[in-house]
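writing this on my phone so excuse typos. first protein, seq and then structure
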Amino acid sequence: MLSRRRRVAIVSQAAIADLYLDSIRSGLANSEVFLIGDGEEAKSLSTVETLCRGFAEFGLLRGDVVVALGGGVVGDTAGFAASVYYRGVDVLQVPTSLLAQVDAAIGGKTAVNIPEGKNLIGAFHQPIAVVSDTDTLASLSPREYRSGLGEIAKYALISDNESSGTGLIELLDNSKDLVLARDPAALADLVAMCSGIKAQVVAADPFERTGIRATLNLGHTLAHALETRGGYELTHGEAVSIGLIFAVELAEAAGRISSETAKRYCSVPGSLGLPIQVPGGSEVKAEDLLAIMRRDKKASGGLTFVLPGKDGLQLVEDPPTDALAHAFRVVGVAG
Protein backbone atom coordinates (compact mmCIF):
# COMPACT_ATOMS: atom_id res chain seq x y z
CA MET A 1 0.00 0.00 0.00
CA LEU A 2 2.77 2.45 0.93
CA SER A 3 5.55 1.13 -1.29
CA ARG A 4 3.75 2.42 -4.39
CA ARG A 5 3.70 5.99 -3.09
CA ARG A 6 6.47 8.36 -4.15
CA ARG A 7 6.60 10.08 -0.77
CA VAL A 8 5.28 9.07 2.64
CA ALA A 9 4.94 11.61 5.46
CA ILE A 10 4.81 9.88 8.84
CA VAL A 11 3.30 11.93 11.67
CA SER A 12 3.93 10.64 15.18
CA GLN A 13 5.14 11.52 18.66
CA ALA A 14 8.63 10.91 20.05
CA ALA A 15 7.81 8.06 22.44
CA ILE A 16 5.68 6.25 19.85
CA ALA A 17 8.24 6.74 17.08
CA ASP A 18 10.92 5.18 19.27
CA LEU A 19 8.83 2.02 19.53
CA TYR A 20 7.38 1.54 16.07
CA LEU A 21 8.99 3.82 13.51
CA ASP A 22 11.58 1.36 12.21
CA SER A 23 8.95 -1.24 11.34
CA ILE A 24 6.85 1.37 9.54
CA ARG A 25 9.74 2.81 7.52
CA SER A 26 11.25 -0.49 6.44
CA GLY A 27 10.74 -0.91 2.73
CA LEU A 28 9.82 2.73 2.12
CA ALA A 29 12.07 4.40 -0.42
CA ASN A 30 11.22 8.00 0.42
CA SER A 31 9.70 8.84 3.80
CA GLU A 32 10.00 11.70 6.25
CA VAL A 33 9.03 11.80 9.93
CA PHE A 34 7.17 14.71 11.51
CA LEU A 35 6.91 14.66 15.30
CA ILE A 36 4.24 16.61 17.18
CA GLY A 37 3.85 17.29 20.89
CA ASP A 38 1.99 15.22 23.45
CA GLY A 39 -1.47 15.86 24.85
CA GLU A 40 -4.49 17.81 23.64
CA GLU A 41 -2.38 20.98 23.49
CA ALA A 42 -0.75 19.56 20.34
CA LYS A 43 -4.14 19.45 18.60
CA SER A 44 -3.92 23.04 17.41
CA LEU A 45 -4.01 25.11 14.25
CA SER A 46 -0.37 26.03 14.81
CA THR A 47 0.58 22.34 14.78
CA VAL A 48 -1.36 21.87 11.55
CA GLU A 49 0.44 24.82 9.97
CA THR A 50 3.80 23.41 11.04
CA LEU A 51 2.90 20.03 9.55
CA CYS A 52 1.67 21.48 6.27
CA ARG A 53 4.78 23.60 5.87
CA GLY A 54 6.88 20.53 6.60
CA PHE A 55 4.94 18.55 4.01
CA ALA A 56 5.65 21.27 1.44
CA GLU A 57 9.37 21.32 2.23
CA PHE A 58 9.42 17.53 1.91
CA GLY A 59 7.77 17.84 -1.50
CA LEU A 60 4.61 15.93 -0.60
CA LEU A 61 2.15 15.98 -3.50
CA ARG A 62 -1.51 15.07 -3.85
CA GLY A 63 -0.71 11.53 -4.97
CA ASP A 64 1.40 10.87 -1.88
CA VAL A 65 0.23 9.78 1.57
CA VAL A 66 0.30 10.85 5.22
CA VAL A 67 0.63 8.11 7.84
CA ALA A 68 -0.79 8.88 11.30
CA LEU A 69 1.19 6.69 13.69
CA GLY A 70 -0.08 7.11 17.23
CA GLY A 71 -3.13 7.68 19.37
CA GLY A 72 -6.10 9.98 19.01
CA VAL A 73 -4.12 13.22 19.14
CA VAL A 74 -1.88 12.11 16.27
CA GLY A 75 -4.78 10.70 14.27
CA ASP A 76 -6.93 13.82 14.63
CA THR A 77 -4.12 16.28 13.92
CA ALA A 78 -2.43 14.40 11.09
CA GLY A 79 -5.80 13.60 9.55
CA PHE A 80 -6.87 17.23 9.59
CA ALA A 81 -3.53 18.37 8.16
CA ALA A 82 -3.94 15.80 5.37
CA SER A 83 -7.48 17.00 4.71
CA VAL A 84 -6.42 20.61 4.07
CA TYR A 85 -3.00 20.10 2.46
CA TYR A 86 -3.49 20.32 -1.33
CA ARG A 87 -7.22 20.26 -0.48
CA GLY A 88 -6.83 16.66 0.57
CA VAL A 89 -4.13 14.00 0.41
CA ASP A 90 -4.60 10.38 1.43
CA VAL A 91 -4.13 9.45 5.07
CA LEU A 92 -3.44 6.00 6.51
CA GLN A 93 -4.36 5.62 10.16
CA VAL A 94 -2.10 3.35 12.27
CA PRO A 95 -3.59 3.71 15.78
CA THR A 96 -1.42 2.61 18.70
CA SER A 97 -3.75 3.39 21.63
CA LEU A 98 -6.87 1.51 22.69
CA LEU A 99 -9.00 4.63 22.36
CA ALA A 100 -7.83 5.21 18.79
CA GLN A 101 -8.22 1.57 17.76
CA VAL A 102 -11.81 1.29 18.96
CA ASP A 103 -12.95 4.80 18.04
CA ALA A 104 -10.82 7.78 17.03
CA ALA A 105 -9.10 6.30 13.97
CA ILE A 106 -12.35 5.07 12.41
CA GLY A 107 -14.86 7.15 10.50
CA GLY A 108 -12.89 10.03 9.01
CA LYS A 109 -13.53 12.70 11.63
CA THR A 110 -10.47 14.92 11.99
CA ALA A 111 -10.19 18.03 14.14
CA VAL A 112 -8.13 20.34 16.31
CA ASN A 113 -8.99 22.38 19.37
CA ILE A 114 -9.33 26.10 19.98
CA PRO A 115 -9.69 27.83 23.38
CA GLU A 116 -13.47 28.00 22.93
CA GLY A 117 -13.85 24.24 22.71
CA LYS A 118 -12.60 20.82 21.71
CA ASN A 119 -12.66 19.66 18.08
CA LEU A 120 -14.37 22.84 16.84
CA ILE A 121 -12.12 23.10 13.75
CA GLY A 122 -12.17 19.98 11.61
CA ALA A 123 -13.17 18.10 8.50
CA PHE A 124 -14.43 14.73 7.36
CA HIS A 125 -11.51 12.93 5.69
CA GLN A 126 -11.84 9.16 5.43
CA PRO A 127 -8.58 7.20 5.73
CA ILE A 128 -7.58 4.87 2.92
CA ALA A 129 -7.22 2.20 5.62
CA VAL A 130 -7.01 1.71 9.38
CA VAL A 131 -4.32 -0.73 10.51
CA SER A 132 -4.72 -1.75 14.16
CA ASP A 133 -2.18 -3.99 15.88
CA THR A 134 -3.35 -4.83 19.39
CA ASP A 135 0.22 -5.76 20.37
CA THR A 136 0.89 -2.01 20.67
CA LEU A 137 -1.54 -1.82 23.60
CA ALA A 138 0.94 -3.56 25.90
CA SER A 139 3.07 -0.40 25.94
CA LEU A 140 0.30 1.92 27.19
CA SER A 141 0.40 3.39 30.68
CA PRO A 142 -2.39 2.17 33.00
CA ARG A 143 -4.17 5.52 32.75
CA GLU A 144 -3.97 5.68 28.96
CA TYR A 145 -5.24 2.12 28.71
CA ARG A 146 -8.20 2.92 30.98
CA SER A 147 -8.93 5.93 28.79
CA GLY A 148 -9.63 3.55 25.93
CA LEU A 149 -11.97 1.58 28.16
CA GLY A 150 -14.10 4.72 28.42
CA GLU A 151 -14.92 4.49 24.72
CA ILE A 152 -15.52 0.75 25.02
CA ALA A 153 -18.04 1.46 27.78
CA LYS A 154 -19.73 3.89 25.40
CA TYR A 155 -20.02 1.22 22.70
CA ALA A 156 -21.45 -1.22 25.23
CA LEU A 157 -24.29 1.23 25.91
CA ILE A 158 -24.72 2.06 22.22
CA SER A 159 -24.98 -1.59 21.23
CA ASP A 160 -27.57 -2.22 23.94
CA ASN A 161 -29.79 0.41 22.32
CA GLU A 162 -29.72 -1.27 18.91
CA SER A 163 -32.27 -3.84 17.80
CA SER A 164 -29.40 -6.14 16.84
CA GLY A 165 -27.57 -5.59 20.14
CA THR A 166 -24.17 -7.28 20.30
CA GLY A 167 -24.34 -8.16 23.98
CA LEU A 168 -21.23 -6.10 24.66
CA ILE A 169 -22.33 -5.27 28.21
CA GLU A 170 -22.58 -8.96 29.02
CA LEU A 171 -19.27 -9.68 27.28
CA LEU A 172 -17.55 -7.02 29.37
CA ASP A 173 -19.16 -8.35 32.53
CA ASN A 174 -18.00 -11.90 31.80
CA SER A 175 -14.49 -10.99 30.65
CA LYS A 176 -13.78 -7.96 32.85
CA ASP A 177 -10.71 -9.51 34.49
CA LEU A 178 -9.24 -10.49 31.12
CA VAL A 179 -9.84 -7.00 29.73
CA LEU A 180 -8.25 -5.31 32.73
CA ALA A 181 -5.27 -7.68 32.41
CA ARG A 182 -4.94 -6.76 28.70
CA ASP A 183 -5.47 -10.32 27.54
CA PRO A 184 -4.56 -10.34 23.80
CA ALA A 185 -7.52 -12.46 22.69
CA ALA A 186 -10.02 -10.43 24.71
CA LEU A 187 -8.60 -7.19 23.33
CA ALA A 188 -8.71 -8.44 19.76
CA ASP A 189 -12.39 -9.30 20.19
CA LEU A 190 -13.21 -5.92 21.77
CA VAL A 191 -11.37 -3.90 19.12
CA ALA A 192 -13.11 -5.86 16.36
CA MET A 193 -16.56 -5.46 17.95
CA CYS A 194 -16.26 -1.76 18.73
CA SER A 195 -14.72 -0.81 15.40
CA GLY A 196 -17.41 -2.85 13.68
CA ILE A 197 -20.17 -1.00 15.54
CA LYS A 198 -18.68 2.36 14.61
CA ALA A 199 -18.06 1.40 10.98
CA GLN A 200 -21.69 0.32 10.61
CA VAL A 201 -22.99 3.61 12.02
CA VAL A 202 -20.58 5.70 9.94
CA ALA A 203 -21.56 3.87 6.76
CA ALA A 204 -25.19 4.83 7.38
CA ASP A 205 -24.39 8.51 7.97
CA PRO A 206 -20.82 9.33 6.83
CA PHE A 207 -21.16 13.11 7.08
CA GLU A 208 -23.41 13.28 10.17
CA ARG A 209 -26.39 14.67 8.25
CA THR A 210 -29.22 12.37 9.34
CA GLY A 211 -28.55 12.23 13.08
CA ILE A 212 -27.61 8.54 13.03
CA ARG A 213 -23.89 9.18 13.40
CA ALA A 214 -24.46 11.72 16.14
CA THR A 215 -25.46 8.85 18.42
CA LEU A 216 -21.75 7.96 18.57
CA ASN A 217 -21.42 11.07 20.74
CA LEU A 218 -23.19 9.42 23.68
CA GLY A 219 -21.62 10.91 26.81
CA HIS A 220 -19.57 13.41 24.83
CA THR A 221 -21.59 16.58 25.44
CA LEU A 222 -20.50 16.77 29.06
CA ALA A 223 -17.18 15.05 28.32
CA HIS A 224 -15.98 17.76 25.94
CA ALA A 225 -17.11 20.47 28.35
CA LEU A 226 -15.16 18.85 31.18
CA GLU A 227 -12.06 18.58 29.01
CA THR A 228 -12.30 22.19 27.86
CA ARG A 229 -12.99 23.65 31.29
CA GLY A 230 -10.35 21.55 33.02
CA GLY A 231 -7.56 22.25 30.56
CA TYR A 232 -7.56 18.58 29.51
CA GLU A 233 -6.46 17.33 32.93
CA LEU A 234 -8.93 14.49 32.43
CA THR A 235 -8.13 12.07 29.64
CA HIS A 236 -10.78 11.79 26.95
CA GLY A 237 -11.89 8.36 28.12
CA GLU A 238 -12.15 9.52 31.72
CA ALA A 239 -14.31 12.45 30.64
CA VAL A 240 -16.46 10.16 28.49
CA SER A 241 -16.99 7.82 31.44
CA ILE A 242 -18.35 10.67 33.56
CA GLY A 243 -20.35 11.88 30.57
CA LEU A 244 -21.97 8.46 30.22
CA ILE A 245 -23.11 8.51 33.85
CA PHE A 246 -24.47 12.02 33.33
CA ALA A 247 -26.36 11.05 30.16
CA VAL A 248 -27.87 7.93 31.72
CA GLU A 249 -28.97 9.77 34.87
CA LEU A 250 -30.38 12.58 32.72
CA ALA A 251 -32.34 10.06 30.67
CA GLU A 252 -33.76 8.41 33.79
CA ALA A 253 -34.70 11.73 35.39
CA ALA A 254 -36.41 12.78 32.16
CA GLY A 255 -38.49 9.59 32.16
CA ARG A 256 -36.81 8.05 29.12
CA ILE A 257 -35.47 4.89 30.78
CA SER A 258 -36.28 2.87 33.88
CA SER A 259 -34.26 2.97 37.08
CA GLU A 260 -33.28 -0.66 36.45
CA THR A 261 -31.85 0.20 33.03
CA ALA A 262 -30.06 3.24 34.45
CA LYS A 263 -28.49 1.13 37.20
CA ARG A 264 -27.34 -1.47 34.66
CA TYR A 265 -25.81 1.16 32.39
CA CYS A 266 -24.14 3.10 35.20
CA SER A 267 -22.44 -0.06 36.45
CA VAL A 268 -20.40 -0.43 33.26
CA PRO A 269 -17.83 2.41 33.60
CA GLY A 270 -17.20 1.77 37.28
CA SER A 271 -16.64 -1.95 36.71
CA LEU A 272 -13.79 -1.03 34.36
CA GLY A 273 -12.08 1.18 36.92
CA LEU A 274 -13.20 4.42 35.31
CA PRO A 275 -14.19 7.60 37.19
CA ILE A 276 -17.90 8.23 37.67
CA GLN A 277 -17.73 11.67 39.27
CA VAL A 278 -15.96 14.90 38.36
CA PRO A 279 -12.73 15.29 40.37
CA GLY A 280 -13.12 18.36 42.55
CA GLY A 281 -16.69 18.65 41.33
CA SER A 282 -17.78 20.69 44.34
CA GLU A 283 -15.64 23.52 42.95
CA VAL A 284 -17.16 23.24 39.46
CA LYS A 285 -20.24 25.27 38.58
CA ALA A 286 -22.89 23.62 36.47
CA GLU A 287 -23.56 26.89 34.63
CA ASP A 288 -19.94 27.05 33.49
CA LEU A 289 -20.27 23.61 31.95
CA LEU A 290 -23.65 24.43 30.43
CA ALA A 291 -22.18 27.49 28.72
CA ILE A 292 -19.56 25.29 27.05
CA MET A 293 -22.13 22.62 26.17
CA ARG A 294 -24.25 25.18 24.35
CA ARG A 295 -21.37 25.48 21.85
CA ASP A 296 -21.32 21.72 21.29
CA LYS A 297 -21.24 20.64 17.63
CA LYS A 298 -24.59 18.87 18.02
CA ALA A 299 -26.30 21.96 19.41
CA SER A 300 -28.71 24.04 17.34
CA GLY A 301 -29.21 27.00 19.62
CA GLY A 302 -29.72 25.26 22.94
CA LEU A 303 -28.53 22.17 24.77
CA THR A 304 -28.43 18.92 22.83
CA PHE A 305 -27.68 15.50 24.29
CA VAL A 306 -27.58 11.95 22.98
CA LEU A 307 -29.81 10.01 25.39
CA PRO A 308 -31.07 6.43 25.57
CA GLY A 309 -34.80 5.80 25.50
CA LYS A 310 -37.45 3.25 24.64
CA ASP A 311 -36.83 3.89 20.94
CA GLY A 312 -33.05 3.69 21.24
CA LEU A 313 -30.55 6.53 21.24
CA GLN A 314 -31.91 9.91 20.17
CA LEU A 315 -30.84 13.54 20.04
CA VAL A 316 -32.72 15.38 22.78
CA GLU A 317 -32.83 19.17 22.91
CA ASP A 318 -33.21 21.23 26.09
CA PRO A 319 -34.11 18.51 28.61
CA PRO A 320 -35.97 19.54 31.79
CA THR A 321 -34.03 21.75 34.19
CA ASP A 322 -34.73 19.49 37.16
CA ALA A 323 -33.40 16.48 35.23
CA LEU A 324 -30.21 18.37 34.43
CA ALA A 325 -29.80 19.35 38.07
CA HIS A 326 -30.21 15.71 39.13
CA ALA A 327 -27.61 14.50 36.63
CA PHE A 328 -25.12 17.15 37.75
CA ARG A 329 -25.61 16.13 41.38
CA VAL A 330 -24.94 12.48 40.59
CA VAL A 331 -21.60 13.28 38.93
CA GLY A 332 -20.67 15.52 41.85
CA VAL A 333 -21.01 18.96 40.26
CA ALA A 334 -22.23 21.91 42.31
CA GLY A 335 -25.45 23.60 41.27
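second protein below, same order as before
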Amino acid sequence: MSDKLDIARFHQQYPSARRHGLSGKVSVGKFLKWIQSPEGSLEMACAEISSMYWMKKPGLPAHEYLIIYLGASHWRLGLRVERDTDSWSTLFLPKSRSNCKDTINFDPTWTIGNTVVAGVMFENSQGPKVGDLGDLLQIISESADYYNVWTLNCWWFVSCVWTNLVRSGVVETSHCDADVIQRWNTVSGEGKDKLGMDPVKIARVLQFIHVAGLQRALGDREGPRVMEKVSERIQDSFDRRSRALRLTTNPHTCTSASITLPYA
Protein backbone atom coordinates (compact mmCIF):
# COMPACT_ATOMS: atom_id res chain seq x y z
CA MET A 1 0.00 0.00 0.00
CA SER A 2 1.39 3.40 -0.94
CA ASP A 3 2.22 6.15 1.53
CA LYS A 4 -0.15 8.50 -0.33
CA LEU A 5 -3.06 6.11 0.20
CA ASP A 6 -2.15 5.71 3.86
CA ILE A 7 -2.12 9.46 4.52
CA ALA A 8 -5.37 9.86 2.54
CA ARG A 9 -7.06 7.31 4.79
CA PHE A 10 -5.60 9.01 7.84
CA HIS A 11 -7.07 12.35 6.73
CA GLN A 12 -10.38 10.64 6.03
CA GLN A 13 -10.52 9.26 9.56
CA TYR A 14 -9.16 12.42 11.21
CA PRO A 15 -10.24 15.50 9.20
CA SER A 16 -8.63 17.92 11.65
CA ALA A 17 -5.20 16.54 10.68
CA ARG A 18 -5.76 17.73 7.12
CA ARG A 19 -6.97 21.13 8.32
CA HIS A 20 -3.80 21.50 10.37
CA GLY A 21 -1.67 20.64 7.34
CA LEU A 22 -0.24 17.38 8.68
CA SER A 23 1.35 15.71 5.68
CA GLY A 24 4.95 14.92 4.89
CA LYS A 25 7.53 16.14 7.39
CA VAL A 26 6.32 18.60 10.03
CA SER A 27 7.88 20.04 13.15
CA VAL A 28 7.00 18.55 16.52
CA GLY A 29 5.58 21.96 17.38
CA LYS A 30 3.09 21.73 14.51
CA PHE A 31 2.14 18.18 15.52
CA LEU A 32 1.58 19.32 19.11
CA LYS A 33 -0.54 22.25 18.00
CA TRP A 34 -2.84 19.74 16.28
CA ILE A 35 -2.90 17.02 18.93
CA GLN A 36 -3.55 19.58 21.68
CA SER A 37 -6.30 21.39 19.77
CA PRO A 38 -9.92 20.65 20.82
CA GLU A 39 -10.71 18.86 17.55
CA GLY A 40 -7.40 17.00 17.39
CA SER A 41 -7.51 15.76 20.98
CA LEU A 42 -11.12 14.63 20.51
CA GLU A 43 -10.44 12.76 17.26
CA MET A 44 -7.28 11.07 18.57
CA ALA A 45 -8.54 10.26 22.07
CA CYS A 46 -8.73 6.53 21.28
CA ALA A 47 -5.93 6.20 18.71
CA GLU A 48 -3.15 3.85 19.79
CA ILE A 49 0.39 3.00 18.83
CA SER A 50 0.56 -0.61 17.63
CA SER A 51 4.33 -1.00 17.14
CA MET A 52 7.65 0.85 17.08
CA TYR A 53 10.94 0.27 15.27
CA TRP A 54 14.29 1.71 16.31
CA MET A 55 16.12 2.52 13.08
CA LYS A 56 19.75 3.34 12.30
CA LYS A 57 20.99 5.08 9.19
CA PRO A 58 24.62 4.35 8.25
CA GLY A 59 27.12 7.16 8.50
CA LEU A 60 29.59 8.78 10.86
CA PRO A 61 28.08 9.66 13.19
CA ALA A 62 25.17 7.30 12.45
CA HIS A 63 21.68 8.79 12.54
CA GLU A 64 18.95 7.03 14.53
CA TYR A 65 15.19 7.52 14.46
CA LEU A 66 11.89 5.81 15.27
CA ILE A 67 9.19 4.48 12.99
CA ILE A 68 5.97 4.47 15.02
CA TYR A 69 2.93 2.70 13.62
CA LEU A 70 -0.67 3.59 14.36
CA GLY A 71 -3.48 1.20 13.53
CA ALA A 72 -4.28 -2.47 13.10
CA SER A 73 -2.40 -5.10 11.12
CA HIS A 74 -4.53 -4.76 7.95
CA TRP A 75 -3.94 -1.01 7.81
CA ARG A 76 -1.49 1.18 9.64
CA LEU A 77 0.12 4.58 9.30
CA GLY A 78 3.84 4.94 9.94
CA LEU A 79 5.30 8.06 11.53
CA ARG A 80 9.02 8.77 11.40
CA VAL A 81 9.95 10.54 14.64
CA GLU A 82 13.44 11.96 15.02
CA ARG A 83 15.80 14.63 16.26
CA ASP A 84 18.33 16.29 13.97
CA THR A 85 20.28 19.53 13.69
CA ASP A 86 21.44 21.96 11.03
CA SER A 87 24.78 22.58 12.74
CA TRP A 88 27.57 20.20 13.69
CA SER A 89 29.49 22.75 15.76
CA THR A 90 29.05 20.65 18.90
CA LEU A 91 31.17 17.92 17.34
CA PHE A 92 34.23 20.10 17.97
CA LEU A 93 32.85 21.92 21.04
CA PRO A 94 31.46 19.13 23.25
CA LYS A 95 29.98 21.47 25.87
CA SER A 96 28.25 23.78 23.41
CA ARG A 97 24.70 23.68 22.07
CA SER A 98 23.11 23.91 18.65
CA ASN A 99 19.53 24.12 17.44
CA CYS A 100 17.59 20.87 17.44
CA LYS A 101 15.05 19.92 14.79
CA ASP A 102 12.52 17.51 16.24
CA THR A 103 10.22 16.35 13.45
CA ILE A 104 7.48 13.88 12.55
CA ASN A 105 7.22 12.59 9.00
CA PHE A 106 3.77 11.36 7.98
CA ASP A 107 5.15 9.87 4.74
CA PRO A 108 8.11 7.80 5.96
CA THR A 109 10.03 5.53 3.63
CA TRP A 110 12.10 2.49 4.53
CA THR A 111 15.48 3.37 3.10
CA ILE A 112 17.60 0.53 1.75
CA GLY A 113 20.66 0.12 3.95
CA ASN A 114 19.03 1.33 7.15
CA THR A 115 19.13 -1.14 10.03
CA VAL A 116 16.26 -2.16 12.30
CA VAL A 117 18.07 -1.99 15.63
CA ALA A 118 15.05 -3.07 17.69
CA GLY A 119 11.31 -3.48 17.43
CA VAL A 120 8.34 -3.80 19.75
CA MET A 121 4.69 -4.74 19.18
CA PHE A 122 1.96 -3.93 21.69
CA GLU A 123 -1.04 -6.01 22.70
CA ASN A 124 -4.17 -5.13 20.77
CA SER A 125 -5.98 -2.16 22.38
CA GLN A 126 -3.25 -1.90 25.04
CA GLY A 127 -0.64 0.18 23.26
CA PRO A 128 0.34 3.72 24.24
CA LYS A 129 -2.10 6.40 23.11
CA VAL A 130 -1.11 8.91 20.46
CA GLY A 131 -1.87 11.47 23.15
CA ASP A 132 0.90 9.89 25.24
CA LEU A 133 3.31 10.55 22.37
CA GLY A 134 2.13 14.16 22.25
CA ASP A 135 2.56 14.63 26.00
CA LEU A 136 6.02 13.07 25.89
CA LEU A 137 7.21 15.21 22.98
CA GLN A 138 5.92 18.30 24.78
CA ILE A 139 7.91 17.40 27.90
CA ILE A 140 11.04 16.67 25.87
CA SER A 141 10.79 20.01 24.08
CA GLU A 142 10.47 21.77 27.44
CA SER A 143 13.33 19.85 29.07
CA ALA A 144 15.87 19.44 26.26
CA ASP A 145 15.31 21.96 23.49
CA TYR A 146 18.85 21.87 22.11
CA TYR A 147 21.13 19.47 20.24
CA ASN A 148 24.54 18.22 21.25
CA VAL A 149 26.15 15.53 19.14
CA TRP A 150 27.72 13.97 22.25
CA THR A 151 24.71 13.99 24.59
CA LEU A 152 21.18 15.15 23.71
CA ASN A 153 21.41 13.86 20.17
CA CYS A 154 19.33 11.67 17.86
CA TRP A 155 19.96 8.38 19.66
CA TRP A 156 19.28 9.89 23.09
CA PHE A 157 16.00 11.25 21.71
CA VAL A 158 15.04 7.84 20.30
CA SER A 159 15.91 6.11 23.58
CA CYS A 160 13.88 8.62 25.58
CA VAL A 161 10.76 8.30 23.42
CA TRP A 162 11.10 4.50 23.13
CA THR A 163 11.55 3.90 26.87
CA ASN A 164 8.67 6.07 28.04
CA LEU A 165 6.22 4.79 25.44
CA VAL A 166 7.12 1.15 26.15
CA ARG A 167 6.38 1.76 29.83
CA SER A 168 2.96 3.14 28.86
CA GLY A 169 1.69 0.06 27.02
CA VAL A 170 1.47 -3.72 27.28
CA VAL A 171 4.18 -5.35 25.17
CA GLU A 172 3.32 -8.42 23.10
CA THR A 173 6.71 -9.11 21.49
CA SER A 174 10.06 -7.38 21.08
CA HIS A 175 13.34 -8.08 19.33
CA CYS A 176 16.83 -6.63 19.01
CA ASP A 177 19.54 -6.70 16.34
CA ALA A 178 21.82 -9.74 16.63
CA ASP A 179 25.00 -7.63 16.51
CA VAL A 180 23.82 -5.55 19.46
CA ILE A 181 23.01 -8.70 21.42
CA GLN A 182 26.44 -10.16 20.69
CA ARG A 183 28.23 -6.97 21.76
CA TRP A 184 26.25 -6.83 24.98
CA ASN A 185 26.81 -10.50 25.84
CA THR A 186 30.54 -10.01 25.27
CA VAL A 187 30.88 -7.15 27.76
CA SER A 188 28.23 -8.29 30.27
CA GLY A 189 28.97 -11.99 30.47
CA GLU A 190 25.25 -12.74 30.42
CA GLY A 191 25.71 -15.62 28.00
CA LYS A 192 22.87 -16.18 25.58
CA ASP A 193 20.62 -13.31 26.61
CA LYS A 194 18.57 -12.45 23.52
CA LEU A 195 17.02 -9.26 24.92
CA GLY A 196 13.80 -10.53 23.45
CA MET A 197 11.36 -10.00 26.29
CA ASP A 198 12.30 -6.62 27.74
CA PRO A 199 12.37 -3.62 25.38
CA VAL A 200 13.28 -1.31 28.28
CA LYS A 201 16.45 -3.36 28.75
CA ILE A 202 17.12 -3.06 25.03
CA ALA A 203 17.13 0.73 25.38
CA ARG A 204 19.46 0.54 28.38
CA VAL A 205 21.87 -1.71 26.51
CA LEU A 206 21.92 0.60 23.50
CA GLN A 207 22.46 3.57 25.80
CA PHE A 208 25.30 1.74 27.53
CA ILE A 209 26.99 1.15 24.17
CA HIS A 210 26.62 4.80 23.18
CA VAL A 211 27.77 6.11 26.57
CA ALA A 212 30.83 3.86 26.50
CA GLY A 213 31.80 5.40 23.18
CA LEU A 214 31.14 8.87 24.56
CA GLN A 215 33.40 8.27 27.55
CA ARG A 216 36.17 6.96 25.32
CA ALA A 217 35.89 10.05 23.11
CA LEU A 218 35.68 12.71 25.82
CA GLY A 219 37.47 10.99 28.68
CA ASP A 220 35.06 12.16 31.38
CA ARG A 221 31.64 11.41 32.86
CA GLU A 222 30.04 14.83 32.53
CA GLY A 223 28.19 14.00 29.31
CA PRO A 224 26.59 10.80 30.63
CA ARG A 225 25.53 12.63 33.80
CA VAL A 226 23.80 15.29 31.71
CA MET A 227 21.89 12.65 29.76
CA GLU A 228 20.91 10.74 32.90
CA LYS A 229 19.71 13.86 34.70
CA VAL A 230 17.61 15.10 31.79
CA SER A 231 16.19 11.62 31.10
CA GLU A 232 15.14 11.18 34.73
CA ARG A 233 13.47 14.59 34.76
CA ILE A 234 11.53 13.77 31.59
CA GLN A 235 10.44 10.35 32.90
CA ASP A 236 9.28 11.85 36.20
CA SER A 237 7.27 14.57 34.44
CA PHE A 238 5.75 12.06 32.01
CA ASP A 239 4.80 9.67 34.83
CA ARG A 240 3.13 12.44 36.81
CA ARG A 241 1.20 13.62 33.78
CA SER A 242 0.12 10.06 32.97
CA ARG A 243 -1.10 9.45 36.53
CA ALA A 244 -3.06 12.69 36.51
CA LEU A 245 -4.63 11.77 33.18
CA ARG A 246 -5.69 8.33 34.42
CA LEU A 247 -7.50 9.94 37.35
CA THR A 248 -9.60 12.09 35.01
CA THR A 249 -10.19 9.64 32.14
CA ASN A 250 -12.92 7.02 31.90
CA PRO A 251 -11.18 3.79 30.77
CA HIS A 252 -14.42 2.59 29.15
CA THR A 253 -14.75 5.62 26.87
CA CYS A 254 -12.99 3.90 23.96
CA THR A 255 -14.49 0.71 22.62
CA SER A 256 -11.48 0.29 20.35
CA ALA A 257 -8.37 2.40 20.55
CA SER A 258 -6.93 1.31 17.24
CA ILE A 259 -7.44 3.04 13.94
CA THR A 260 -9.93 0.99 11.93
CA LEU A 261 -10.61 2.10 8.40
CA PRO A 262 -12.40 0.31 5.57
CA TYR A 263 -10.44 -1.22 2.74
CA ALA A 264 -10.20 0.88 -0.41
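The CA atoms of residues 122 and 172 lie 5 Å apart. thats all i got for now
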